[in-house]
Amino acid sequence: MSEETTVVHLLRHGEVFNPDGILYGRLPGFRLSDAGEMMAKKAAAWFAGKDVVRLVSSPLERAQQTAAPIAAELGLPVELDERLIEAGNAFEGMRVAGGAGVFRRPANWWKLRNPLQPSWGEPYVEIAARMIRAVEAARDASRGHATVLVSHQLPIWTVRLHLEGRRYVHDPRRRQCGLASVTSLTYVGDRFTGLSYAEPAGATDPDAVPGA
Predict the structure, then answer these.
(1) Per-residue pLDDT at 99
(2) Could you confirm whether domain 5-19+31-88+122-198 is CATH 3.10.290.10?
(3) Which of 5, 44, 109, 114 is deepest in the core (most CB within 10 A)?
(4) What is the dihedral of CA 80, 176, 164, 59, to 10 degrees?
(5) How far is CA 72 from CA 40, 43, 48, 145, 187, in A?
(6) Is the pLDDT reported for residue 211 higher than 70?
(7) Burial of 69 by CB count in 10 Å (0-12 exposed, 13-18 middle, 19+ buried)?
(8) Which residues face 186 on adjacent strands?
(9) Judging by beta carbons within 10 Å of its beta carbon (0-12, 13-18, 19+), is residue 73 exposed, middle or buried?
(10) How far apart are the C-alpha atoms of 192 and 152, rounded to whole Å?
């Protein structure tokens, strides 16, 4: 008997209202902007007809807001999974650009000592491990169908690097993981067979702050 094909869609949340350019990380109170809410609606329309039987979100507000239109479109409840949360970051709550940016302060340079880990936040290996567990749980719960996992840029990009056998160290500006983008992982049985990438809400502004 042939093995079933299962797809796990990793959806990055939409644009966040962040006029001060804060690296918000896991901080509460950061919601989608008006544009971000529209992105979420476009993503919901994109998932229509894609045999999605389960919807799971990071517990952060912006991810749950992104999941809400999908839940309405597909008639699914939104489950929460802590493993999908944004990566921990020592610069959380600080501005990341401009004259007051974190990289202009010598006191912060020690945190940048090891980009291989990275020394300023949650280690890549730990991000990849928790994301893989979330992805495999989603695969097992929706055999022969599809699941949507709503997460954040760095966790999605890290698990992609892991599955493609690439090094974790990278330039954040080169991540292929735009706002409200979808990285779709295909499995045949338990075997990962490839991925595809789509931007239902269009390309992200190249001047947007990386991350989150």
Answers:
(1) 41
(2) no
(3) 44
(4) -10
(5) 11, 12, 11, 19, 27
(6) no
(7) buried
(8) 7, 194
(9) middle
(10) 21
Q: Strand runs (DSSP E) across 5-91, as ranges? A: 5-12, 52-57, 79-80
The overall average pLDDT reported for the chain is: 88
The token pair at 207 is 């001047």
Q: What is the pTM of this model?
A: 0.89
3-state secondary structure of 91: coil
CA–CA gap between residue 185 and residue 193 (Å, rounded): 8
The backbone region for 51, taken as left when phi is positive above 0, alpha when psi lies in -120 to 50, beta otherwise, is left
pLDDT in tens, 85-123: 999 877 777 776 544 455 555 555 444 555 555 656 788
What b/e string do you get for 124-137 counting C-beta neighbours within 10 Å, with b at 16 or more?
beebbebbbebbeb
**Cα angle value 120/128/94 (rounded, 5°):** 30
E-assigned strand segments in the chain: 5-12, 52-57, 79-80, 146-151, 182-188, 191-198
**Separation between Cα atoms, residue 184 and residue 121, nearest integer Å:** 26
Q: Which of 24, 42, 43, 31 is nearest to 183 (CA)?
A: 43
Q: In angstroms, rounded to a whole number, what is the distance separating the alpha carbons of residues 82 and 101?
A: 29
Parse the chain into domains and list their residue ranges: 5-19+31-88+122-198
Element of type H or E holding 159? helix 153-163
